[in-house]
Amino acid sequence: MSDWTTYSKEELLELKAETQKRYDEYKAKGLKLDLSRGKPGSDVLDLSNGLLGALDTYKSENGTDIRNYGVPTGLPEAKKLFSDLLGIPAANLIVGGNSSLTHMYNVFAFLHLFGPKGFAPWSKQKVKILCPCPGYDRHFTLTDDFGAEMVVVPLKEDGPDMDLVEKLAAEDESVKGIWIIPLYSNPTGGIISSEKAKRLASMKTAAKDFRIFWDNAYGVHHIWEKNTAPDILKLTAEAGNADRAYYFFSTSKINFPGGGIGLVAASEENVAELAAHYAKATIGFDKIIQLKTVKFFGNADGIVAHMERIAELLRPRFDHVLGTLHKEFSGTGLLTWTPPKGGYFVSVDTLPGCAKAVVALAKDAGVVLTGAGATYPHKADPNDSNIRIAPTYPDLDELEETMELLVLCIKLVSIDKLLEV
Ligand SMILES: Cc1ncc(COP(=O)(O)O)c(C=O)c1O
């Protein structure tokens, strides 16, 4: 396709009239579609319905009555399931609760209130957290909730700009941590390289209590091919920084979002410390869902097979989004994107200064997109260009309609931007 940025004013006006007409036709349809949040569609949820009735016993393998209090860091068979799936020793796991984000919040709260063992509470100091961007909005709102300053670092295809990360961490002792989504990052779908993970694990930090918040939310969410995240707990231990990383995971996009199991993994010392704090917050997580999950999947291979079934449902949706972007925008100079390697999102960048207007225009025609800027702290995308597309929720028909409209919105706003020049 030819480069629209080279078109004359007359050509642009002609394209505008044509595109506007098609947009108005869509608007008249009164669509009500949602491409905003990364949630599974009902076809994906249906794959896990068997979990609801999966219990044929209320005894854990160690004889625990799962209906009662106790076993605060997780049933042994649930720990084994995730240990085998993620390659993390059971001794390094706390399995329980329905949300990994809650574990992230709690870990942050413990650090804030009490500090890591042997260190001052973070609440008593200036705290800066490195935020590779574009990133996950809830990491940012969580960090902001504790009053920590968020420092944006560019996210490349293979992880954050490590030269900058190393410099900031080495120079400033208020730089206390970094958010990382290692596999199929939200929203770019990229994977951190082993080399970058190693640098994170071993880099010199001015803060002796620097922490990596390693959110492996999409750790088994392959779409076209299987990849694995570097083993951050092993890398930090090998580098003599065993306490540096907290690892988070959940079954939210494996079975039921908010109705599954969350977990946090860390060094044995960190796990002991976290477990001691958790002991004051709960007399035990829900073990019924833990046993149901074990019974439903059987073992780690059962989860892998389940994820293959999910991938079969998601692949056509992602292929459609990527195919549309390629067909409509390749060579136009209007939009850039890197196809995700897996996960839940497609991240695109418009011409500078267009993202907010595209989202607003789509909303006027009944299509909700993730708010422009959401992929940056304080919703402040310096270029106003990043838009996160979440294709997992709508069915294919709805997705086709939504993408057609999105294409028109991007074109209309881009034409206006080009006409300004
Ligand atoms: C990167 C990332 N982490 C965590 C979560 C939330 O996970 P949970 O439901 O386990 O709290 C999401 C959900 O969208 C996510 O994208």
Q: What is the number of strand segments?
A: 13
Q: Which fold name fills CATH's third level, the topology of the largest domain?
A: Aspartate Aminotransferase, domain 2
Q: In the CATH hierarchy, what is the architecture of the largest domain at level 2?
A: 3-Layer(aba) Sandwich
Give the low-confidence spans. Answer: none
Total of helices = 13
N-to-C span: 22 Å
- The CATH class name of the largest domain reads Alpha Beta
Mass-distribution shape = globular
Q: How do the strands line up in the largest sheet?
A: 2-9-8-7-6-3-4-5
Describe this structure in words.
The chain is α/β, with parallel strands linked by helices and 421 residues long. It folds into two domains: 4-44 and 304-420, Aspartate Aminotransferase, domain 1, CATH 3.90.1150; 59-297, Aspartate Aminotransferase, domain 2, CATH 3.40.640.10. It is 42% helix and 14% strand. It has 13 helices and 13 strands. The protein has helices at residues 9-28, 42-46, 76-86, 100-113, 137-145, 162-171, 194-202, 232-238, 268-281, 287-297, 300-329, 355-364, 396-420; strands at 33-35, 93-95, 128-133, 149-156, 159-160, 175-180, 211-215, 245-250, 262-265, 335-337, 346-350, 367-369, 386-389. An eight-stranded mixed β-sheet has the order 2-9-8-7-6-3-4-5, with helices on both faces. A three-stranded antiparallel β-sheet has the order 10-11-13, with helices on one face. It has a two-stranded parallel sheet with strand order 1-12. Strand 4 and strand 5 form a beta hairpin. Helix 1 runs antiparallel to helix 13 (396-420), helix 7 (194-202) packs across helix 8 (232-238) and helix 11 (300-329) crosses helix 13. The model has no long low-confidence stretch (mean pLDDT 97).
